Amino acid sequence: KKNIEVELKFQVLDEAQIEELLKNLQFINEKRMVDVYLDTGKGDLYKKGIFVRIRDNRKLEFKFNLAAFQNQNKLNWHEECSEFSFPLPLASASDSVDSINKICKILKLKEITTPNLEEFKNKNNLIDSILIDKIRREYKDKKFRYSFDDVKKLGKFIEIEFLASEEDDIEKIKNEMREKLSNLKLKLITTGYNEVYWRKYNFNLYLQGRYLFEEDYKKYRPQAGKRNIKNWFWCRGRRGELYKSTFRKIRS
Predict the structure, then answer these.
(1) Can you tell me the distance from the alpha carbon of 169 to that of 153, in angstroms, rounded to the nearest whole number?
(2) Nearest Cα to 193, choosing from 18, 16, 33?
(3) Where is coiled-coil annotated (predicted)?
(4) List of residues 6+ apart from 75 with CB closer than 8 A
(5) How many domains would you assign to the chain?
(6) First to last CA, the chain
(7) Handedness of CA 97, 58, 137, 14 (dihedral sign)
(8) Per-residue pLDDT tens over the stretch 49-104
């Protein structure tokens, strides 16, 4: 079963180079994607490494590293993450409420009694904290998929992806992906757009977050130690089901 998505993500430093690359790829589609991140007014979820978002008003998603959440005093790199997704509007079936409440219990959030998004927000004092609005153009070649994101107020980013199975040689795939983009002017991004946003618009809050850019670990959290984070990848589930996602580092 192909349930491992191997991905590299970069900030684009030379757009002309990227456009030349994309000319040689097969265009798939272009779409707008809007993510609304929920948090308290003080960013309490962000500070704990909990990411709750609404994607395109169609999905409610939770992302967190359980080990990092349970050990807040231990410094962690953003290498591993569990992800849970629920279609919106929330299903009226009791198992939808039960599944969300299991996550709430783990994250010490207040549980809901009905499949109602507003109840979840109100009980946990959550507001629409960040809006990540992007236009994504997707491409592919014979092996990999590429996503070119133009993110409003943040800039342009590119991702290269491969959907693999446990039987595939992941290390070989990762090396091939690095080689594909090795001649381009790019900056590796090992966090999500959430951190990218706060780093640009509220640096003080950004520094209180659970995860930082690699160069900021060196400057602000040197006790985290040196890590050779080249990229990250995760296991992805399918629509409507609970699924676990695992971010891992890649060594040279």
Answers:
(1) 38
(2) 33
(3) 160-187
(4) 221, 223, 224
(5) 1
(6) 27
(7) negative
(8) 999 999 999 999 999 888 777 777 776 666 567 788 999 999 876 678 999 999 99
